[in-house]
Specification:
29% of the residues lie in helices and 34% in strands. The protein is an alpha+beta fold. The strands form two sheets. The protein has a six-stranded mixed β-sheet with strand order 1-2-3-5-6-9. Strands 4-8-7 form a three-stranded antiparallel β-sheet. A hairpin with a 5-residue loop joins strand 5 and strand 6. The radius of gyration is 16 Å and the shape is globular. The N and C termini lie far apart (41 Å). The mean pLDDT is 89.
Length: 171
């Protein structure tokens, strides 16, 4: 069972924002299911096209872009999970909801793999709660921008933020 931390609640709110956005932009898709497994960092949504039965697997990450680079990313272990799904013919699409700037971008894992093969990524190592972490990041310009969320949505996400440093973009 997942503990309902602020981070979990922020992720759930990010998922709701993406669902709302998908319904507006892609009305031909139905949401078949949400939260496929009772664990964090799994596929959040499965969508099906009402016309041709095309299936889309969606993962939502609700987090600010990096301060020093116009990039965002995910835990490398989770990326490896998505690569394994991709190898089985399941192309997960990762949606990034920027809780500071309000942008929503998406990146299919198949495209993420291409970018990695072209060395258009950065890997960062850091320590979080005494655990060594590895993050893979992609440039925002290599992702598809969808829309901006409202100021009210940004404010709600900000209230759930657990960052221990201020968000500031460095040039």
């Amino acid at each position: 069972m997942i503990t309902k931390t602020k981070t979990f609640k922020k992720g759930t709110l990010g998922e709701s924002i993406v669902i709302e956005t998908l319904k507006k932009l892609f009305p031909e898709y139905d949401i078949l299911t949400q939260n496929i497994k009772d664990k964090a960092h799994w596929v959040d949504l499965i969508l099906m096209n009402k016309i041709n039965n095309d299936i889309k697997y969606i993962e939502v990450k609700t987090k600010a872009r990096l301060n020093k680079y116009p990039m965002t990313g995910i835990d490398y272990k989770h990326y490896q999970e998505y690569i394994r799904l991709n190898e089985k013919g399941i192309d997960v699409i990762i949606f990034f909801v920027d809780d500071k700037l309000g942008d929503i971008h998406y990146l299919p894992v198949s495209k993420a793999i291409e970018l990695e093969n072209q060395n258009k990524i950065k890997i960062f190592y850091f320590k979080q709660r005494n655990i060594n972490k590895k993050t893979i990041c992609w440039f925002l310009e290599d992702m598809k921008f969808i829309t901006k969320i409202s100021k009210d949505q940004i404010d709600k996400l900000t209230k759930l933020d657990e960052r221990n440093h201020n968000f500031k973009i460095y040039n």
